[in-house]
Task: structure prediction
Amino acid sequence: DTEVTQTPKHLVMGMTNKKSLKCEQHMGHRAMYWYKQKAKKPPELMFVYSYEKLSINESVPSRFSPECPNSSLLNLHLHALQPEDSALYLCASSQQPGGQETQYFGPGTRLLVL
Amino acid sequence: GEDVEQSLFLSVREGDSSVINCTYTDSSSTYLYWYKQEPGAGLQLLTYIFSNMDMKQDQRLTVLLNKKDKHLSLRIADTQTGDSAIYFCAESIQGGKLIFGQGTELSVKP
Result:
């Protein structure tokens, strides 16, 4: 089983709202990732968690706040977003952090900021 | 720095073979990947190849790797309309990062 699940599938929010995206995997993977993807473009890495600790932050604005409560869960808290933040947000996981491990992606959350 | 390049579009007829090409720059990559993304969906891992291999075959998919030229290709035999999607080539680099190409949009015409 190589399944990564994400909720919700779709999210519409105003610029003053606070919302959260959730990601879950039960493969025992110890690295988890958040990516942002605009239409017909490749995913852009936002954050990497290794053994539940934030290891990479690709200079993402503070209105995006990641959290890794345990080894299976990854959240992305959203606050005061801008319309240009509308995109597909993808979560991924891999077995071990730091090495060249295969990443498995979830179906994504499609976010629209009004 | 690391870079991965792909052509943006490919159009084929149903039943033909499709060949999607990719070039990369980081010679230290251990794995090279092909991901498929259908409209409105996430990325599906199609196949990958270890850098010490020249070829990998998996049913209708054949991956060829020319490490000297840093060239990777994905051949889809007997292409079907369900193969219409964007195909991303990616190389893994140290630190657990994936470097993606821009994606090749494959259109399969009946």
Q: What stands out?
A: Chain B touches chain A at residues 29-31, 33, 35, 40-45, 48, 86, 88, 92-98, 100-103, 105 (CB under 8 Å). The two ends of chain B are 41 Å apart (CA to CA). The first strand of chain B starts at residue 4 and ends at 6. The mean pLDDT of chain B is 92.
